[in-house]
Amino acid sequence: MKKIFTYYRLAKEELSKVIFPTKEQIRNALISVVIVVTVITLFLALVDLILSASVSSIL
Fold first, then answer.
1. Is residue 8 one of the residues assigned to a domain?
2. Which domain holds residue 33?
3. Total domain count for the chain?
């Protein structure tokens, strides 16, 4: 039983050391991720379009 209380106390101490992100940090990270994913998606779509056009012209 003493091990359980010790584990709980240590877990609570460690959790108090955690720094959670603010809403603004989460929003900024979300915007950054959306922008990066959009840019990569557009790039891959352009590469796919160019490659499919070149393959269809060859065949």
1. no
2. 20-59
3. 1
The identity of residue 31, as a single letter, is: I
* 12 in a structural domain: no
Q: Is position 13 within any domain?
A: no
In this prediction the pTM is 0.66
pLDDT tens digits along 1-58: 889 999 999 999 999 999 999 999 999 999 999 999 999 999 999 999 999 999 988 8
Tokens of 24: 């603004």
Greatest Cα-to-Cα distance within the chain, rounded to the nearest angstrom? 75
What b/e string do you get for 31-55 counting C-beta neighbours within 10 Å, with b at 16 or more?
eeeeeeeeeeeeeeeeeeeeeeeee
Q: Within 13 Å, how many C-alpha atoms sit on residue 18's CB side?
A: 8
Q: Is residue 45 part of a domain?
A: yes
Tokens encoding 21: 């992100």
